[in-house]
Amino acid sequence: MQEKVKKLLGGHKYYRNTRSTQLANAIIHDKAHEVNEGRTRGEKLSLQQIRDLAKVDPKYQEMTQDEKDELLRALTEYRALKNAGIRATNAAVAHDVQSTLERVFKILDGLALRSGIYVCLFATRGHVYDSSQPFWYGTDNVMDFWEDVLDVEPDELVRKLEQWACTQGKSRCRVCRNGR
After folding, report:
1. What is the full DSSP assignment across 128-154?
2. 148-154: which pairs have CB atoms within 8 A and are 24 or more residues apart?
């Protein structure tokens, strides 16, 4: 009980507004792409070296608004691709799943403590070669709902979800709102 009170009093805000792309970051991104292209992992320049090169590069000193907009657009596109792009290996997929869901769990736990909502989440791999493990998550005692009301254990439900997902052949993203 004391732990729950401590969490309520010292609750963390895990959500934040997205910031717009900054020109300084776009310049560094452009310069990094220019100087690191063709270099192997150990040969690439450090962030500080790239910053120093960008400061003295005359191409970045007197830029037109169109040039600035193009750099901002290129960085925005790169970030979108990096965020939504397909991972190269199954190990990378599993790591992405684990790290993202750990953040989601923290957010949901904080939200449940602050607002008293109940949340349950089931997740599984999307194909048979994915090494991610199926799992379920629930705040407070919400997982008892599955057993008490529907007479289904969460482990059995997530196992059936995994079987269903692996037989579908591919994972498609769908957004459901207001029960639709």
Report:
1. TT--PPPEEEESTTTTHHHHHTS---H
2. 154/120, 154/122
Strand-pair partners of 122: 136
0.90 surpassed by pTM: no
Within 13 Å of residue 106, how many CA atoms lie on the same side as its CB? Answer: 11
Match 């289904």 to its residue by tokens: 152
Alpha-carbon distances, residue 169 vs 31, 76, 90, 163, 176 (angstroms): 41, 31, 16, 11, 21
From the list 161, 160, 120, 124, the residue with the least C-alpha distance to 144 is 120
pLDDT tens track for 38-48: 888 889 999 99
Q: How far apart are CA 82 and CA 16, in angstroms?
A: 20
The Cα–Cα gap between 108 and 177 comes to: 18
Whole-angstrom Cα distance, residue 50 to residue 37? 13
Helices (H) and strands (E) in the chain, counts: 7, 2
